[in-house]
Design brief:
With about 250 residues, this protein is α+β, with helices and mostly antiparallel strands. It has 4 helices and 9 strands; from the N terminus they run E-E-H-E-E-E-E-H-E-E-E-H-H. Helix content is about 15%, strand content about 20%. Helix 2 crosses helix 4. The radius of gyration is 18 Å and the shape is globular.
Length: about 250
């Protein structure tokens, strides 16, 4: 991405395999299938680190699909199968890790577009303000949904983007020295059974459900991941005021 200062930031777009993740401060009790005192629950605790824990290490063994240019796109699973720490397994076969983003427990999988902007908020036109950044991310999602005739809104109490009282996009951001990591996950056509409250309390919110673009569309055809990815790039440019060059291997 070209900013007003000529810096090249990055925007990563991909799908995960089936995985649950807990943010830094997430309550492992929101994995409702785990019994108190069990080994798996202790491996996911906020204090568990190092060997034997289920805390996900940074994956440095990734494939860059474009060697030069302003946008890097990854279509491989960003969670390496060579991690030193083994995941906890959910009853439905999904892996579970604790990671270093904000937010509580959520699910990523096929049919969900995950967007991770890597931005230097110290540079213009950005602001050194994580609250501003989070609201900008939500605005990107709201504008993407509008392109498909869906009215997404913010919630006064909870982060993310909502449609008719149900969450359609989870937002979990983090930064180090004002360099952002993580981002948002937009439900396009996932298997919503992975959000079932017999397994997790999505985002730690007990009284609100989860929805998807597929579920909210009543007439038009559900868009592909590719289509929504292109829409995300376009809306990201508009909301953040940056120029984005799309990598060669968006598919």
């Amino acid at each position: 991405m070209n900013t007003s200062e000529g810096n090249l930031d990055r925007l990563l777009l991909f799908q995960h395999e089936h995985v649950y993740t807990l943010g830094r401060g997430a309550d492992e009790n929101n994995l409702v299938f785990l019994e108190d005192g069990c080994k798996e629950k202790s491996r996911l605790s906020r204090t568990a680190r190092g060997e034997g824990s289920a805390r996900l290490c940074s994956n440095k063994d990734v494939t860059v699909l474009r060697k030069s240019g302003q946008l890097l796109l990854f279509d491989n699973n960003p969670i390496s199968k060579k991690q030193a720490n083994e995941p906890v397994m959910a009853p439905n076969g999904a892996t579970i890790f604790r990671i270093e983003r904000g937010g509580d427990v959520t699910y990523h999988g096929p049919g969900i577009l995950v967007c991770y902007p890597l931005l230097d908020l110290r540079r213009k036109p950005y602001k050194q303000d994580l609250h501003w950044y989070l609201r900008q991310i939500e605005e990107v999602v709201i504008q993407v949904l509008a392109l498909h005739g869906i009215q997404g809104v913010r919630d006064e109490e909870d982060t993310g983007v909502w449609v008719n009282g149900k969450k359609i996009a989870a937002v979990g951001v983090s930064s180090s020295r004002w360099i952002t990591t993580h981002g948002f996950a937009l439900n396009i056509f996932p298997d919503l059974s992975f959000f079932d409250t017999s397994v997790i309390i999505p985002c730690g919110i007990r009284d609100k459900g989860v929805t998807s673009i597929e579920k909210e569309l009543t007439i038009s055809k559900t868009p592909s991941i590719y289509r929504v990815a292109l829409d995300t790039v376009a809306c990201f440019q508009q909301v953040f005021g940056v120029a984005v060059e799309i990598g060669d291997n968006l598919h």
